[in-house]
Specification:
22% helix; five-stranded mixed sheet; single chain; alpha/beta; 16% strand; AB_hydrolase_1; 174 residues; Rossmann fold
Length: 174
């Protein structure tokens, strides 16, 4: 059975009425994902090194779940913002974290102002990263500007995304 998708138009001036039959709520209470041990340490979480774009963006894959959850942070942060959530997610998902090109953790030589003057450069990095890691049908969680990056990437390559979770999406930047 093909999953249903919910699409929201962000530029509408009046609220849209959600159609319940097309809306999927992804709810994962933290207590369901706690491992059997009393404490999950980062040492017990898988780190999978990669080359290419994955190395340039410091991509990390944690956990062994069958569903991949991609976590992408907002402007001014880095992937460390997810560290406190990872122990709750790794027992249920394979979790991908990475840095965006503006991060101080990424080589300054990687950042090209002409490429990253719009969000399309970042969305192309996301698509290329998922292709490089051979990840499809992912659950993408994007915060702030990464909500828009994920939206753009999903319109370019819908095969890479099963669900989008968009937290406090920023307005579109042209």
């Amino acid at each position: 059975m093909k999953p249903k998708r919910a699409i929201y138009i962000l530029s509408q001036t009046k609220p849209l009425k959600p159609q319940t039959e097309n809306l999927i709520l992804l709810s994962l209470p933290p207590f369901l994902c706690l491992s059997s041990s009393s404490e999950t340490s980062m040492e017990s979480i898988n780190y999978v090194p990669h080359g290419g774009l994955a190395a340039a963006l410091n991509a990390n894959i944690y956990g062994n779940g069958t569903q991949t959850l991609v976590l992408s942070y907002g402007y001014g942060l880095d992937q460390n913002v997810w560290q406190l959530l990872l122990p709750y997610l790794v027992c249920c998902f394979k979790v991908l974290t990475f840095d965006l090109a503006f991060s101080p953790n990424v080589s300054p030589d990687f950042y090209k102002p002409s490429k990253y003057s719009t969000l399309h450069g970042y969305s192309q990095d996301l698509v290329n990263l998922l292709d490089e890691l051979q990840l499809k049908n992912t659950v993408y969680l994007g915060h702030s500007m990464s909500a828009m990056i994920g939206s753009i990437a999903a319109t370019q390559r819908p095969d890479l995304f099963q669900h989008l979770i968009l937290l406090s999406g920023s307005p579109r930047v042209s």
